[in-house]
Design goal:
Layout: H1 7-10, H2 14-50, H3 53-69, H4 71-80, H5 83-103, H6 108-137, H7 142-193, H8 202-205, H9 212-219, H10 221-237, H11 240-251, H12 256-277, H13 286-302, H14 310-338, H15 344-373, H16 375-399
Helix pairs in contact: 2-3, 2-6, 2-7, 3-6, 3-15, 4-6, 4-15, 5-6, 5-7, 6-15, 7-12, 7-14, 9-10, 9-15, 10-13, 10-15, 10-16, 11-15, 11-16, 12-14, 13-14, 13-16, 15-16
Length: about 425
């Protein structure tokens, strides 16, 4: 059953839809840039101000924990209110918190409190952005717009730390915080200019619950399997960034430039996966493609430990990045396709909460693994276990007859205005 076209296209007004696509993609990129621009100078500031590892850890907990703890409430808010308005409101709250942060750098307690506000805003903004993608892309290939959204995110994640370091070095932490506030102003402007609307479904609003998104992810066999494999892989895979430092710098005896080139190669692969590979996966094989992508990502992490040269590591980083970018796009599409419109906010918030929770566990355990096994063995274990999780998922998928699941058409409620 084909999706009904949005009113944009029914009236032949294609320009607003294209403009909305550009606005959303730009907003996601600027938002990611602001998030990563914030972390380096603020982390350095807290470390220098307190000299306490606990304070630095507290900063990251304040920024990331809301993505996990507030997931049910954030998703319910997005599904009960008009999504563009939620995105705009969250951007304005974050703008105020970021501006206040620039003036409160003398107090560690104020920094942690305002960082928690920024994290809460991010917990709400992400499902709002996710739920707007099908409205803007309705009648077109979701993978194309999701690929552009993910690429914008990767670009912001790459440029943010560089810009944050430069601003902190030349202008001080306050300048970096004001630049971060400017990114929220840009996000608010983009939300204000969006033509698309995603309004709550009146038939579903009276009976909805915060946990319905998680319930739907668990009840749908295809989603349950794909999300389970992704989350399980992240529990070990996210321990790798710290391990890669030790592997590349100590075991490969590579330079700082080579270390940077390794990460550039991974990012390049992510962009290729998001823009090129994900779009070529047949619609009926999106779930299978996501599981294969997890295996490819894990292989890109584990295989360099078998050929310990910086050239092999960089080449395989491109492969791993391809899997990483492809997985992210296909998982977004899978949730958007298989979850009814009125649950999109809660479903993505639940997925985001599970994913970020797994990453927090991995970051906490990564140091223990590196201390016990070393960087090379940690990478081999993390990548290898991820490959095994993906292969087990593929085997189970074939066994229960979900190898080529038919994707559910988007529900008709909650469309564009």
């Amino acid at each position: 059953m084909p999706r009904s076209p949005s009113p944009h296209r029914a009236r032949g007004a294609l320009v607003p839809a294209r403009r909305d696509s550009r606005l959303l993609v730009g907003a996601v990129g600027v938002s990611a840039l602001g998030d990563f621009l914030l972390w380096i100078p603020l982390t350095l500031h807290v470390q220098e101000q307190t000299g306490s590892g606990l304070a630095v850890a507290g900063l990251f907990i304040a920024l990331w924990a809301p993505l996990v703890l507030l997931a049910p409430v954030a998703g319910l808010l997005v599904d009960r209110a008009e999504a563009r308005g939620v995105l705009l409101a969250s951007a304005l709250v974050q703008l105020a918190a970021a501006a206040a942060l620039a003036a409160a750098l003398g107090s560690t307690a104020a920094i942690l409190g305002l960082a928690a506000v920024l994290g809460a805003g991010n917990a709400i903004a992400q499902p709002a952005e996710f739920s707007l993608v099908p409205v803007i892309a309705r009648g077109e290939d979701l993978r194309r717009l999701n690929g552009h959204v993910e690429t914008a995110r990767y670009t912001g994640m790459t440029l943010g730390p560089l810009l944050g370091g430069v601003l902190a070095g030349f202008g001080g932490t306050e300048i970096a915080m004001l630049a971060n506030a400017a990114t929220f102003a840009a996000l608010a402007a983009a939300a204000l200019l969006l033509h698309a609307r995603r309004r709550p479904d009146p038939a579903a609003t009276g009976h909805d619950r915060a946990r319905d998104g998680l319930v739907h992810l668990a009840a749908d066999g295809t989603l349950r399997l794909a999300v389970g494999v992704v989350v399980a892989s992240l529990v070990v895979m996210t321990a790798t960034p710290a391990a890669e430092v030790f592997f590349i710098k100590e075991e490969l005896d590579a330079s700082d430039l080579a270390y940077g080139a390794f990460f550039a190669a991974w990012t390049l692969g992510m962009v290729g996966g998001a823009l090129v590979v994900a779009r070529r996966v047949p619609a009926a094989l999106v779930a299978t493609g996501a599981l294969v992508a997890v295996a490819v990502q894990g292989a890109g992490i584990a295989l360099p430990t078998a050929w310990p040269t910086i050239g092999a590591a960089a080449a395989l980083a491109v492969v791993g990045g391809l899997g990483h970018g492809t997985k992210n796009v296909l998982m977004r599409v899978l949730i958007q396709e298989r979850v009814p419109d009125h649950l999109h906010g809660r479903a993505f918030a639940a997925y985001n909460g599970l994913r970020n929770g797994a990453e927090l566990i991995a970051l906490a355990g990564g140091g223990v693994l590196i201390a016990a096994l070393g960087g090379r063995a940690t990478l081999a274990l993390a990548g290898g276990l991820s490959v095994l999780a993906a292969l087990a998922g593929l085997a189970l998928q074939r066994r229960v007859g979900l190898l080529s699941p038919r994707l559910r058409p988007l529900a008709q409620g909650g469309g564009a205005a």
